[in-house]
Fold:
Amino acid sequence: MGKLILVLTFFINICFANVYENNCVSCHEKQPVSIDKYFYRYLLKYSSQRSVKEAMTNFLKNPSKDTTIMPEAFIDRFGIKDKTQLSDKELKEALDIYWEKYKVFGKLQ
Structure:
């Protein structure tokens, strides 16, 4: 009975998880650098919501050493990620969720 509940819980989580959880977190949780660190690097470099999302979209659609915000040592060790397979709509949704989760605006006191 316990195994059945565990399997059902897992299945429900997969079915109702959002595009960000399914496509971003599922991969990044296996990496040595937590997903929030990427966000803060983008925020430090690009500052505004629009600029951060635009830079991330450009990188995810066409990842390269020229467009990454990660240091060269990181790229030498882990490489450049593959181009996203998400549609423009899914990518926008994932970045919107990512922004809402980690934004600092309105949270600092």
